[in-house]
Amino acid sequence: MNVLLVGSGGREHALAWKLSQSPLVSSLFVAPGNGGTALVARNVPIKDTDIDALVAFAKENACGLVVAGPEAPLVAGLSDALAGAGIPCFGPDAYSAQLEGSKAFAKQIMRLSGVPTADFEVFTDYAAAKAHVSARPLPMVVKADGLAAGKGVVVAKTRQEALDAIEDMMAARSFGAAGDKVVVEDCLVGEEASFLAFCDGKTVVPMPSCQDHKAVGEGDTGPNTGGMGAYSPAPVLPDTEWERMAKLVIEPIVRTLAEQGHPFKGVLYAGLMMTENGPGVLEYNVRFGDPECQPLLMRLESDIVPVMLACAKGELEPSLVRWSPKTALCVVMAAGGYPGSYAKGMEITGLERADQVDGAKVFVAGAALEGGTLKTTGGRVLGVSALGDTLALAQAQAYKAVAELHFDKAYFRRDIGDKGIRRLAQ
Ligand code: AMP
Ligand code: GLY
User: Number of structural domains, the chain?
Assistant: First the structure.
């Protein structure tokens, strides 16, 4: 079968690496791909949001499965357009993709489905939003409704910070139309965890837990990024909790969406805050996390193609999905300056030596092949991953691989996994 994968980050290299191992795949295409996907598939120069061109390509090349990496094509209707062409898509329709595309939609569907989440209000009126701030406890969280590249969330410790955020989003329109609507919600306190599940519209098969590291600096300091590292499982959410968590935060949403005529097919990702009073959902994503995808796929033992096809066709069964009991950990190497401005075009060396470290696998994120040389093109450049018998061993191997890799002004956090190791020691 021919398969088209959409996207161009570290997550997509991991997906391409896993898809390319399937005996069911004859040709694997990635649109637009990167310097890592080029090593295991054929990159095709189509933008990930050019829905018409993606569908036309999938038809012309007789693709039996299209896999959406990022959210943007799903929000733009990729899955709906493919359904019209009779091509199975791993990824939900545009209606369901609003779970990620609109914070207000996500909060309202959580309330409707009885999913635990912070108390909230939605505003389209600037004056009403500002008036609300004076009546709420601190800290409080202000969120731009639409997609804002992970930057549309402000955890405000003072009323002034909350007012400034509302002004920035609604009046100054720093995020464009994404800030015309805002959510103001209570702040949840605890440790964050990522909980993902395969869904076929009715059946839910949970994945092992993960923990991302969103802040750029060690000790979770500095501005938020797309994610500086991740590991799975996350001790804060042990395997014994999967079933309960799926019933609490995934199944109710899948049920509501099915009732509304939009069965959710693909990966549903719940960003959780593990509070003293139990878990609360901070956000949903309608795709694999990046970098969470990298450690998860290193642990996935089964062929991913039958799993994705079953999700797309409404035929998912738990027996299709098998996980390694090992721990996987991914350290993101970024261009110095990220998430602010950073240089591009730096040459990367050491990839082969890093891949030879026992248990390690380097996934390429923001880098392209130029005449056989890998050069940086983005902020998050590499996802250096490793599998180990314990979290500490996976961490040691991943950092051994990091030590083999070089590019000018490379930056990475040295504490990926430390929080989990501390929790295991308690
Ligand atoms: P989101 O894009 O909604 O996941 O928000 C990005 C980050 O903001 C999350 O990963 C949390 O660290 C933080 N955050 C969002 N909502 C809340 C909340 N209600 N309470 C505390 N922190 C939050
Ligand atoms: N790593 C967080 C995300 O993919 O949204």
Answer: 2
pLDDT average per 10 residues of sequence, the chain (426 residues): 98 98 98 98 98 98 98 98 98 98 97 97 95 92 89 92 95 93 96 97 97 96 94 95 95 98 98 96 97 98 98 98 98 97 97 98 97 96 98 98 98 97 94
74, two tokens: 């799903």
List pocket residues of ligand 1, CB cut-off 6 Å.
118, 141, 143, 153, 155, 185, 187-188, 192, 214, 271, 273, 282-283
- pTM exceeding 0.90: yes
285: Cβ below 6 Å to ligand 2? yes
Enter the tokens of residue 316. 């998912």
Q: What is the CATH number of the domain that holds 135?
A: 3.30.1490.20
From residue 6, give the alpha-carbon distance in Å to each of 63, 217, 302, 325, 381.
13, 30, 21, 29, 18
